[in-house]
Amino acid sequence: MSSVFNLIHQRKIPGHFVFEDENVFAIMTINPIAKGHVLVIPTQEVDEWTNVDESTRQELFTVAHRIAEAQKKLFPCERVALIIAGFEVPHCHLHLIPATSMRDVSFSNAAATVDQDDLAEYAAGISRLL
Predict the structure, then answer these.
(1) Domain total of the chain
(2) pLDDT tens for each residue of 53-76
(3) Does the active-site annotation cover 37?
(4) 3-state DSSP helix/strand/coil percent for the chain, to nearest 5?
(5) What's the pTM value of the predicted model, to 2 decimals?
């Protein structure tokens, strides 16, 4: 069975793409902890980040860095937090969360719903800066 991320990557369910190549893609999360929250995901379905092959792992972090630099320009924040939790979906993914304090990166702050037009706007803005 494919993870929800594979279904998004295959365009079987909608997603707001920020970045995509053959190894890595990045999307806006539908349950953001903060405005501009992005997920960076390997195209290969691997559960734990420690099991991702080295070249893909390097690319994940390179892409995450580029996106974080764009997020800093678009969203008011002191830094972009990077979290790899890995419990909610069995497919490795990096959370990039614009933040000003530790309170800003609590998963208890995740939105239950989000305006799809806002996600499209955020995705387009980040993509333009990459």
Answers:
(1) 1
(2) 999 999 999 999 999 999 999 999
(3) no
(4) 40, 20, 40
(5) 0.96
